[in-house]
């Protein structure tokens, strides 16, 4: 997984890696990786088998946890700049899609890039690119703008994860690499066991958003 993340930094920007069996981190300020996520997903042989509220009974001492940056982080500076977030206005989760863009494989782990989509007015796209490019630790700038079919997305109203978002007339879909990408790789590569966050239910850390901004 670490090699997969290193080879696919836009999708898997690593903020921290715990030791095998470790459940605490300085980013959690005394919290527990097994209980502190809003919702989890449990995969066995690539199949989703449960969505528990904690993973205490499934934890093993050989499991290694990876903390991956999330694009929700850069939504705060986008909003501060007056860039609208349609999914927030509509009260739904951000939509996420599997694409035809293939990640660079690592060992037995391979799969497609997953992207999150936020529709934007044409005159705010440049601002969104400029702002998010300063947050490479949480996916950075968009990987694609407009024309979803060019990256293998056939129907924006049917996301693979999250919720569909109504796109206002004249707005353009903008796509960012998404931290659900490892789950798509798990589903394709079918490891014995994998535990993840439920899409849209990420870990909240004590790391301030501003510390992830680069000049």
UniProtKB/TrEMBL annotation:
SUPFAM superfamilies: PSTPO5379-like
Keyword ATP-binding: no
Superkingdom per UniProt: Bacteria
GO MF annotation list: lyase activity
Keywords, alphabetical: Lyase
Family affiliation: Belongs to the D-glutamate cyclase family.
Protein name: UPF0317 protein Cgl2544/cg2803
